[in-house]
């Protein structure tokens, strides 16, 4: 019992919190970059520029179907051969941003595709250009549909930062491993601390996603749009369950 | 790249096999456990519903690596010695079962409640109605998302590399440090992963379109 209490000494807790700080920093930076990049790529994928969209789509499919650890290795070992040697923290931010941007791009593409084509046609018939219609009519509706899926994608991003310990990113997982590596009695307390810390962050994010889902559901009830698709239908490409977790 | 395949073909094949075996074992048990918890979650009993939801939320919100390392580090210390492969497969099963439970639950809830009520009114018990009326319809709906979960499971199986699970990623690390040609090795590994995941992902997209039409 005493071991358990010693494991949570101030020194250890401070060390864990330092790791948690790195985890949060990597997550936040990656979330911002991958969201911007993902939306741009998703639009390119949807809009059908000649050749460009096909190439982008192919790259998205390839990277989405690789394990994240492999993407981390590619950035960590591949970039130095291009003359740029990133520190582990930047290598993991680059890897996570690229990987999650592909996931977000797929969500965005599915989200835009789920908006009935009549919206675009109606906007064009009213004199808007293609880009105006996309910007003011289609995208606002699509983004609203996509928010829950994107938030759950960001939850897995937070969890996936733990994989970057393989290139010795000094994150929460790594620091916990250092602590229980020095004293094996601290193993179980450290795992409990890890589980609690990750759980708090991820579960609050998933509560946020549920809250957003409910709010969006309510705004739809007030202002019914001609949505032939039911968001809970598992065949709807927008359903979170359909997208990669 | 070709020389990697020539020199280390045996190791690559062994890793490929281990990844496939681990994924299939984990998929089977995750499907069984996940469907079980999905049914428990839609049960009217508040306590059972709460327990099932706690299980699902717990394993959904903790990184796979933490679960796997727990089985690799803690279980051998206190209970029994298990191999890295077993620890990885158990961790992968528990983690995936939570996601599969969420998927199956959304399928069960998308089946019209009238189906369950009609079956109950015709004298079937809750379990009979679930088994013969609701689940067959639910599984038809959730086939594409389940397929996506399977693809995730295969990708996540690379976490076995952390616990010496002898899978494709682990062998990749071994080959990379032996041949000193990390990029070529990881490209080979990526190609082998894509051989499994890419066709599955295109097939699931096709199924989605077919079911939506």
Structure description:
- The complex is a heterodimer of chains A (245) and B (213).
- With 245 residues, chain A is mainly alpha-helical.
- Chain A has one domain: Orthogonal Bundle (MetI-like fold), CATH 1.10.3720.
- Chain A has 9 helices and no strands.
- Chain A has helices spanning 2-7, 10-47, 52-64, 68-78, 88-113, 117-125, 130-160, 172-182, 187-222.
- The longest helix of chain A has 38 residues, at 10-47.
- Chain A starts with a helix and ends in a 23-residue tail after the last helix.
- The model of chain A is unreliable at 221-228 (pLDDT under 50).
- Chain B has 8 helices and no strands.
- In chain B, 46% of the residues are buried.
- The chains are: A mainly alpha (245), B mainly alpha (213).
- Chains A and B meet through α3, α4, α7, α8 and α9 of A and α2, α3, α4, α6 and α7 of B.
Regions of chain B with pLDDT < 50 over 5+ consecutive residues?
none
Largest interface: A-B, 47 and 53 residues
CATH topology type of chain B:
MetI-like fold
> What pattern of helices and strands is seen along the backbone of chain A?
HHHHHHHHH
Rg of chain A, nearest Å: 21 Å
Largest sheet of chain B, in brief, is: none
Strand-helix topology:
The complex is a heterodimer of chains A (245) and B (213).
Chain A: H1 2-7, H2 10-47, H3 52-64, H4 68-78, H5 88-113, H6 117-125, H7 130-160, H8 172-182, H9 187-222
Helix pairs in contact in A: 2-3, 2-5, 2-8, 3-5, 4-5, 5-7, 6-7, 7-9, 8-9
Chain B: H1 2-41, H2 46-60, H3 64-78, H4 84-110, H5 113-121, H6 126-156, H7 168-179, H8 182-212
């Amino acid at each position: 019992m005493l071991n358990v209490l010693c494991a949570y000494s101030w020194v250890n807790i401070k060390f864990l919190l330092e790791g948690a700080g790195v985890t949060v920093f990597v997550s936040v930076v990656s979330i911002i970059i991958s969201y911007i990049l993902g939306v741009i790529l998703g639009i390119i994928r949807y809009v059908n520029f000649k050749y460009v969209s096909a190439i982008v789509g192919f790259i998205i499919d390839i990277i989405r179907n690789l394990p994240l650890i492999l993407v981390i290795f590619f950035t960590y070992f591949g970039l130095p051969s291009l003359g740029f040697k990133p520190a582990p923290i930047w290598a993991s931010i680059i890897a996570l941003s690229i990987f999650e941007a592909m996931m977000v791009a797929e969500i965005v593409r599915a989200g835009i595709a789920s908006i009935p084509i009549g919206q675009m046609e109606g906007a064009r018939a009213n004199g808007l250009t293609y880009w105006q219609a996309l910007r003011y009519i289609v995208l606002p509706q699509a983004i609203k549909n996509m928010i829950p899926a994107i938030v759950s994608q960001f939850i897995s991003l937070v969890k996936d930062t733990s994989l970057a310990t393989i290139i010795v990113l000094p994150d929460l997982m790594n620091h916990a491993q250092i602590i229980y590596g020095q004293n094996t009695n601290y193993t179980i307390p450290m795992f409990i601390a890890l589980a609690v810390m990750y759980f708090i962050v991820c579960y609050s994010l998933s509560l946020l996603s549920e809250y957003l889902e409910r709010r969006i559901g309510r705004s739809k009830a007030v202002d019914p749009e001609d949505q032939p698709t039911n968001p809970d239908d598992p065949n709807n490409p927008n359903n979170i369950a359909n997208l990669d977790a | 790249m070709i020389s990697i395949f020539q020199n280390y073909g045996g190791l690559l094949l062994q890793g490929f096999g281990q990844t496939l075996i681990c994924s299939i074992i984990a998929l089977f048990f995750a499907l069984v456990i996940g469907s079980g918890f999905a049914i428990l979650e839609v049960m009217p009993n508040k306590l059972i519903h709460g327990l099932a939801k706690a299980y699902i939320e717990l394993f959904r919100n903790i990184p796979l690596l933490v679960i796997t390392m727990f089985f690799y580090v803690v279980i051998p210390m206190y209970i029994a010695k298990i191999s890295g492969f077993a620890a990885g497969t158990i961790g992968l099963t528990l983690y995936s079962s939570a996601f599969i439970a969420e998927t199956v639950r959304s399928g069960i809830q998308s089946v019209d409640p009238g189906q369950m009520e009609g079956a109950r009114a015709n004298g079937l018990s809750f379990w009979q109605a679930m088994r013969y009326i609701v689940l067959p319809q639910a599984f038809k709906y959730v086939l594409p998302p389940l397929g996506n979960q399977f693809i995730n499971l295969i990708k996540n199986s690379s976490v076995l590399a952390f616990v010496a699970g002898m899978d494709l990623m682990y062998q990749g690390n071994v080959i990379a440090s032996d041949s000193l040609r990390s990029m070529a090795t990881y490209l080979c590994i990526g190609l082998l992963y894509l051989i499994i995941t890419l066709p599955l992902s295109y097939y699931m997209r096709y199924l989605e379109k077919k079911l939506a039409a």
